[in-house]
Amino acid sequence: MPKRLAPLLPAENGTEHSPFDSPREDPSKRKRVGTEIACNACRRRKTRCDGIRPACAACRKRSTECIFVERRENTKSSQSPDGSQEVLELLRSAPESQAFEILRLLRANGDFSAVLSIVRGGANGLPRPSEQDTARAVRGQAQSSLELELMAKSPVSYPPLRNVPLTTGERETLLRPNRLRRSRSFDHQYQMYTAIDERASHYAEAFCAEAEKLWLCEQDNDTILNAASAQLLSLAYLGHGKDHYVLKYLAMALSMGKRLNLFGVEPSKAVQELERIPPETQRANSYTAWGIFNWGVLTTLFYQQPGLEYPDYPPVYPVPGDPTPSSTPDTADSFGSDVSEGSLPSFMGRTLPVLCKFWHMMHGVTLQYYKDRSSPILDHVSLDYAEFKFRELLAWMESLSPNLVLRDHCPHHVVVFHTWFHAAVLDIFRPFIRQPRGGRYRLKTFTDRGCTPDAAFNASVKQLKQLVVRFRCNYKSSSYTLLWQSALIYVANAVLHDTDDPEWRFYFLTCIYGYESLRPSYRIAEVISRGLLAMTLRDGDISGPEARHLLQEMKDTDGNDAAGDIRATFMVDLDLAMTDPEAARVENLAERFEDIALFRDFTTVDDDEARNFRRMESVDSD
């Protein structure tokens, strides 16, 4: 039986088709929408993707995360590898409130990929992640709800911690001195230049001797120049390890400043005096007044120098760089908008006026905490006051101009400023931490009931650890500026209270080698290291041979001989300083190093800590 076939239609006139020609498209069928690339979720499901960024329609409907991965060969793509173009598109298309939130996160973090991981899904109709979800997306596993709240609400003070593994080179930099190459491109004072050429140390000593002779001739002449000179001599002798001279010249600078009505004068009287001074003289007086005042507060807070008389009243002179002479830190709340960029040195930007405001705020803390050393701090300082100052600092930090925010390649003095901020937070909360469980304090102005002084303290410790690593890895000035060394003392003290943390030894060695890199310029660095090692030996965290090995590496570094008349009366054991300041001094703990090491030799044969230390040393030497 013949097979039935469909009848053929006649071909259209004037056209000829090959049997291999494609069939004509059916106009009734929906035209396929072409997309350059589909998202990961649609490709896995093999479903249609419209390619709309940052979230396609299918992912929005499914309420799932939408991620696009660019083809490497697609060189014409409008998306940048670091995600910056995508963030820009989000800023253009998102609602205004969300755009401001994205901008705030970008300003605080500076990492486009991290910002994208937070905001992706927050725009184009998807539910906005909560503040704690936002912080978790950046931080990963945070230790406390307070830390999450600080990261979400105060990103300038507590930017997201970047859990980026260190490269081999960075780890070697941290665990070995960051020696500078000798280069003529550096033009620092001789004491700092010793980090490049050790022969400069002889000039530094000669210049100090000459400066002392000049001071003997001028010390009875009260002038702005002489007051500033005394302050600079105080700073120089800190690096020389002559604390008695540090206190001597700082006290002279403060006394001369009071006689010149630069500070320490009742405000109404000082304002009357200020009105009679010409503007040009006011400007010179302003720099001197705030320079001496700032150094006095810093020395009182971070070094807790005994016997130092510092002023009860801050300067009434305008902050350097402030174009409105009548404004002071009490009347001008924001430095970010008032400071004239043109009146400030380009190499410092807005950092100086911000530091003036910072030390003015911390001046109240030093008066409350350290003015009366005859009684324990808890007898005259309440947690309410500590929390108030913490809140005041947080609110002020969030108002800083963008060039004072931590970001990649920011100036070194911005990083130093942030280390001072977190070190100050540690000092504010130190008297209230490590209380028995039943007597623990609680911060009242934060949302979660678990917000304690310990949580705030630990949040700043984490930030300070990352700042130390960042400064050592990325800034050559870590080898020749002493102004950041307080961060090393504070981190070392913190990790010695948390030796259960597997990373404690890494951070402790980072601090020790940080001082080793400073030793060619500053004799005091070896004495501080000896004091920190004595603390570690005393608490049984390392053995005597380990500590001696580290100290010998310090001595082998090219630099000045640390022997001789070195005085270091400031505190190195910060917790002990609250109950026994005399025993907590650098020089006293450093002097006990050998006795403590011998005691450890006779009480410890070998333990796991010693074996771990030797294993780490062998890996580093390879």
Automatic annotation (TrEMBL):
The keyword Thylakoid does not apply. PROSITE patterns: ZN2_CY6_FUNGAL_1, ZN2_CY6_FUNGAL_2. Transmembrane segments: none annotated. InterPro entries: Notoamide_regulator, Zn2-C6_fun-type_DNA-bd_sf, Zn2Cys6_DnaBD. Signal peptide: none annotated. One of its GO terms (molecular function) is zinc ion binding. Residues 324-334 have a biased composition (Low complexity). Gene3D superfamilies: Zn(2)-C6 fungal-type DNA-binding domain (4.10.240.10). Residues 38-68 form the Zn(2)-C6 fungal-type domain. Residues 14-28 have a biased composition (Basic and acidic residues). The keyword Cell membrane does not apply. This is Nitrogen assimilation transcription factor nit-4.
